[in-house]
From TrEMBL, chain A:
This is Unannotated protein. GO terms for biological process: cell redox homeostasis; glutathione transmembrane transport. It is found in: Membrane. One of its GO terms (cellular component) is membrane. Pfam families: ABC_membrane, ABC_tran. Residues 354-572 form the ABC transporter domain. Keywords: ATP-binding, Membrane, Nucleotide-binding, Transmembrane, Transmembrane helix. The keyword Transmembrane helix applies. The keyword Transmembrane helix applies. Residues 30-312 form the ABC transmembrane type-1 domain.
Automatic annotation (TrEMBL), chain B:
It comes from freshwater metagenome. Residues 323-333 have a biased composition (Low complexity). This is Unannotated protein. Coiled coil: none annotated. Pfam families: ABC_membrane, ABC_tran. Its main location: membrane.
Length: 573, 584
């Protein structure tokens, strides 16, 4: 993933996200309208007040002013209330959008797990990407709404002035465009090099800090503490010229903006005075002119923040789209076949024969073959033990069966159906896997177990726990099944974790269950007890135990040894 | 609100902030004068019926004032930016210097994440705090007072309205302040919760998929996100209501001033130019306060960041310095001191001239003798009465559930910190008497999550021995089964790594760390075995790299894989800080 992305693709990525998440057209319009009402009421309030004062200088009774006074009050109230409504509606929509972006991203991630994600997971890349989503939540509120509202308010101000004389409206329009479009664009192009180098330096600096602090143990262990401070100091020093340039540019932009507001008011006033002398303007309106000009500029203020936010949003959108657009290794077949399984036993449960022929597999294009012409015939209901050294290919088989990786050479058949022609969900539901690195969710034990079977009641959950000798432990917990598992199950011991994951897999009643080194944290006695419980629960269904050392049970139907990517049967004495 | 202690420590920063505030005040003063002139010109045109030519000199004067004001704003902006840049770089380097003194012992894993956030985003959030909030806060005290006095001179009656609404506004601001403080905290907490929930879901995606429940995961994300959106809206609503009150008070005051003035204008108590000037000045009385309300959030974030930074600089430093200068001489018999120095010279000889085998031959054994350790803020001991031995040439597997104290033990062995009780000895000599640089030549470390630093692959391998020859680096890479993949990288050993360089996969990082340890060629190695999810092929490569590093060395392995445990010479089982059993 390279950080160098030009502006164009960034903009495309934003529109891509807007298209996937939904444009929220009505909501954006509503927020922009409310924002416009706020700005408009501000213009109205100043204009009305100025008119009131001017009129008061001419009349000698308050009665003629009643309507104007009412106008001042109405505008004052409207402004306060619409500001409130604008903020309320705006934030309400923001949360809706945040939810949609999260779901969009989650759905985009789903096909990538775990084959593509296992690479990203190792770093804290994922955490960074999550903060990108937080950046994007403001895309609508801070990038899309302000220009819309500003356009409407500027239109109002200019039309109002143009009502007195087209020249007045034109003059205001020119000043507003200079301030709202020309200055920000000019500043952006002037400071582009320094600000992008500054952003780059800042990113480098943050990366150096993160790298140095997370790696401080490595640095101390190898006696290289000097590295961190030296590098940080170097980057900070290198930032100075760009930082100064940027500060000057920002100062000039702020000064120029203030200057333009004032000049706009003066120009409009000057025009007004000449119009007055020429007799084409009633003097009572003179005060309104500069005040309307000043109030109109209020709409232009948030625009520079919008530009800034647009840049941030672009970068964030690019990173998200890059990841979501990664081609998944396993794709749903265009016309998925339907898996038909036989039901056996009482109560009747789905069973499946597994047959593997000529299966070869490598993880990367040029990597070594992890599976080589593997052959396997496992009839439904068998208990199979697979042993072999690490790297021999036994876990890879489990990954292929779960459709986490795609195979292209050879065939895997479930009761006669080729696995990679089946609907992905259906294929996965036929196989359950318990591996060492499976995830437990940071929720209750019950919720974690329900993942196996969402319809199970507590009694059934406890039965499954009993099968793996966890029943007593759960009964002994203060909160029982409501106990929390902690972040990735870190409140449980290694053994409890593993048994909970086995219980969860038992609940699925999948025709094929693979236990991949899933009992290794248990001592020999417990290992046997758990295995007995599992086999008892699954009598009639296929269970495959991948293990380092063969367990001392007698009821093994088939013992396979995996070596260099192929399986050979070991005679069971 | 005014960070006195911060400025006391950074006087230059204070100077720039003061310059910024002065320029801001000047800009406001010019605006007041300009506004009065504006009212005058309108009066000249409207009441006095003057022509454009008559008012032109005044308009020109006002344009000059605008130029002056623009200059003031420019100066205010660059000085506040200067202050912000200065403070951030000073705080960053101070904090870093402190962190280096603290070392890895004081920085547990959770803390590291928090500290990097504080140093990155936290220090960045000081920018709006210094460049926007602080000037706004200062100006909100100065400018309304100035405007109040000016209005008082022009029309004393209006000041009554301001006298009433002004304090009300400040009161509201205080209320908003208190509320937003707890609100931002609450929101922050909720956002943090939501993020970790989301991370949990994404990390568990493979598991969800395996159970065919990914779609339900998406629904959960939706539900939780929606629920938290609603909860956050509830808290935000009160914040908006408070600011509604404030907005309303300010606008109502302006309207009140307008109506009141118009009545007195009709009665002839007030001249038109004064009336208009007062009307236009009234919003300027409230503007700084409203500006402050907008920047309040930046202020809160800056304050929180400053508090967090203070917490970091308050982490006590460890005795990382050369222990030979620190060990109290009184407790140590002179004879033992001499024996230590003898050992030292032996070691350096071994490392300089010996190959792995000869180094190992002189290594001897490590004894953990009733070692106890309690973390400063912890209630219970992380390790208690831990005693076991690693004999020469042996591979000892350290096992136990997470939190049992395995990594604490590793930190003690690495001398990142010292045991509270008992001691770790090497052939009977407590290791804290061995100079740090000497100890580093005896032991090398392969962490579970090795850090990769920006630089080339070769530089990363030679981390502990800068200036190693490429031949040495290659040899170390070969030991770590890393040579092949490194040669396949775009520029081989010169490939850049780190944030802007190539990202290594988990398995590649592991092997890089093993090479890093291999080049140190120490007789003792400490390995923290990976738990990350690696594909089978990579896992096999890392396992064989670990095996070849341990070959001919004494090794302590924090073991997570069954195969490693099975192949160890001895297993030490740690549970809740105690050694439960040492088997085989």
């Amino acid at each position: 993933m390279t950080p160098s992305t030009t502006a164009k693709p960034g903009a495309r990525n934003i529109s891509r996200i807007v298209r996937s998440v939904g444009s929220y057209r009505w909501w954006v319009t509503a927020t922009a309208l409310l924002s416009f009402i706020t700005l408009g009421a501000g213009i109205g309030l100043l204009a009305m007040s100025a008119f009131l004062i001017s009129k008061s200088a001419l009349v000698d009774s308050t009665i003629t002013l009643a309507l104007t006074i009412l106008g001042v009050r109405v505008f004052a109230m409207t402004r306060a209330v619409s500001r409130y409504a604008e903020r309320y509606v705006g934030h309400l929509g923001t949360f809706k959008i945040l939810t949609r972006i999260r779901i969009w991203f989650f759905r985009g991630m789903e096909p990538l797990a775990p084959a593509v994600l296992s690479e990203h997971r190792s770093g804290d890349l994922l955490t960074r990407i999550l903060s990108d989503i937080d950046t994007l939540q403001d895309l609508y509120l801070r990038v899309l709404v302000p220009p819309l509202a500003a356009a409407l308010a500027v239109g109002l101000g200019c039309i109002l002035l143009a009502g007195f004389s087209p020249w007045l409206g034109g003059a205001l329009f020119i000043f507003v465009c200079l301030c709202g479009i020309a200055i920000p664009l000019a500043m952006q192009s002037l400071t582009r090099s320094s600000s992008s180098s500054l952003v780059q330096d800042q990113a480098n600096l943050n990366a150096t800090l993160v790298e140095g602090i997370t790696g401080i143990a490595d640095l101390v262990a190898f006696g290289r503490q000097d590295l961190l401070q030296g590098r940080a100091g170097h980057i900070t020093a290198a930032q100075q010229p760009a930082r100064k340039q940027l500060a000057h540019a920002r100062g000039i932009a702020a000064g120029l903006t203030a200057l333009l507001v004032g000049l706009a008011a003066l120009t409009v006033l000057g025009f007004g005075v000449s119009l007055l002398s020429a007799g084409s303007l009633d003097g009572v309106y003179l005060a309104i002119l500069p005040l309307v000009a000043i109030a109109t500029f209020e709409a232009v203020g948030p625009l520079s923040a919008a530009y800034e936010h647009l840049d941030k949003s672009r970068a964030a959108a690019t990173r998200l789209v890059d990841l979501v657009d990664t081609t998944p290794t396993v794709l749903q077949p265009p016309q998925p076949a339907v898996l038909k399984l036989e039901k056996r036993g009482s109560p009747p449960r789905d069973v499946a024969d597994l047959s593997i022929a000529n299966l070869s597999f490598r993880y990367s294009q040029h990597g070594p073959l992890v599976l080589k012409n593997a052959h396997l015939e496992i009839p439904a209901g068998s208990f199979v033990v697979v042993t072999g050294a690490s790297g021999s290919g036994k876990s890879t088989l489990a990954h292929l069966l779960l459709r986490f990786w795609e195979y292209s050479q050879g065939s895997i058949q479930l009761s006669g159906s080729e696995l990679n022609l089946l609907d992905l969900d259906q294929a996965r539901s036929a196989v359950a896997l318990v591996a060492q690195h499976d995830h437990l969710f940071d929720t209750t034990l019950r919720d974690n177990l329900l993942l196996g079977d969402s319809r199970a009641d507590d009694q059934r959950l406890l039965l499954a726990c009993d099968a793996v000798c966890l029943g007593d432990w759960i009964q002994g917990l203060a909160a029982g099944l409501d106990e929390r598992a902690g972040e990735n199950g870190n409140r449980l011991s290694g053994g409890e974790r593993q048994r909970l994951m086995i219980a969860r897999a038992l609940l699925t009643e999948a025709p094929i269950l693979i236990l991949d080194e899933a009992t290794e944290h248990l001592d020999a006695k417990m290992q046997l007890k758990v295995l007995d419980g599992v086999l008892n629960w699954r009598s009639g269904l296929t269970t495959i135990l991948i293990t380092h050392e063969s367990p001392l049970t007698s009821n093994i139907d088939m013992h396979l040894h995996c070596k260099d990517g192929s399986f050979s049967e070991v005679r069971v004495e | 609100m005014w960070p006195r202690s911060l400025f006391a420590e950074h006087p230059l920063v204070r100077r720039w902030v003061i310059v910024s505030v002065l320029c801001g005040t000047a800009a406001a003063a010019i605006l007041v004068a300009w506004t009065i002139l504006l009212a005058g010109v309108i009066n000249d045109g409207f009441i006095q019926k003057q022509s454009f030519g008559d008012v032109l000199p005044l308009l020109e004067l006002m344009a000059v004032l605008l130029l002056l004001r623009a200059a003031c704003i420019w100066l205010a902006e660059i000085s506040s930016q200067r202050a912000s840049g200065l403070l951030r770089s000073q705080i960053r380097s101070d904090t870093l210097a402190h962190l280096v003194r603290v070392g890895p012992a004081g920085l547990s894993n959770e803390r590291t994440a928090e500290i990097t956030t504080t140093l990155g985003q936290g220090i960045d959030s000081l920018d709006p705090y210094l460049s926007r909030f602080l000037p706004a806060a200062a100006l909100s005290a100065i400018v309304p007072a100035g405007v109040f006095v000016t209005i008082g001179i022009l029309d004393p009656w209006t000041t009554l309205i301001l006298l009433f609404t002004g304090p009300m506004l400040i009161l509201l601001l205080a209320v908003i302040g208190r509320r937003t403080r707890s609100l931002t905290e609450q929101r922050f907490e909720q956002l943090g919760w939501l993020s970790s929930f989301y991370l949990d879901m994404i990390q568990g995606l493979a598991t969800l998929k395996a159970f065919g429940r990914a779609e339900e995961g998406a629904e959960m994300v939706e539900q939780v996100s929606r629920r938290y959106g609603e909860a956050t809206m509830d808290v935000l609503r009160t914040a908006f209501q408070t600011s509604l009150m404030m907005e309303w008070a300010a606008t109502a005051a302006t309207a009140l001033v307008a109506v009141q003035i118009s009545f007195r204008l009709i009665r002839g108590d007030l001249s038109f130019d004064l009336a208009l000037a007062v009307l236009m000045l009234t919003p300027e009385f409230f503007a700084p306060l409203r500006r402050l309300a907008i920047e309040y959030h930046a202020g809160q974030e800056g304050n929180t960041a400053l508090e967090r930074i203070a917490e970091i600089t308050a982490i006590p430093t460890q005795r990382l310095a050369n222990p030979s200068t620190e060990t109290p001489a009184a407790e140590t018999p002179a004879t033992e001191d001499r024996s230590t120095s003898q050992i030292k010279s032996l070691e350096s000889g071994a490392v300089q001239f010996g190959a792995v085998q000869s180094g190992a031959a002189q290594f001897g054994a490590v004894q953990f003798d009733s070692v106890g350790f309690t973390y400063p803020e912890a209630n219970s001991a992380a390790l208690e009465q831990v005693s076991f031995e690693i004999r020469h040439g042996e591979t000892v597997a350290l096992v136990g559930p997470s939190g049992a104290g395995k990594s604490t033990l590793a930190k003690l062995l690495m001398q990142f910190m010292q045991p509270d009780q008992g001691q770790i000895c090497r052939d009977g000599i407590p290791i804290q008497r061995i100079e740090h640089s000497e100890w580093r030549r005896v032991i090398s470390w392969v962490p579970q999550q090795p850090a990769v630093f920006a630089g080339t692959v070769a530089e990363n391998i030679a981390l502990g021995k800068p200036g190693s020859s490429l031949t040495q680096i290659r040899k170390a890479a070969r030991v770590a089964c890393a040579e092949e993949f490194i040669d396949a990288l775009p520029e081989g050993f010169n490939t850049l790594l780190g944030e802007n360089g190539l990202r290594l996969s988990g398995g590649q990082r592991q092997r890089l760390a093993i090479a890093r340890a291999a080049i140190m060629n120490t007789p003792l190695v400490l390995l923290d075995e990976f738990t990350a999810h690696l594909d089978e092929e990579t896992e096999a490569q890392v396992v064989s790299a670990m095996a070849s590093l341990m070959q001919g060395r004494t090794a302590l392995v924090i073991a997570h894989r069954a195969a490693t445990i099975a192949s160890a010479d001895r297993i030490v089982n740690l549970e809740a800080g105690h050694v439960i059993e040492a088997t085989r």
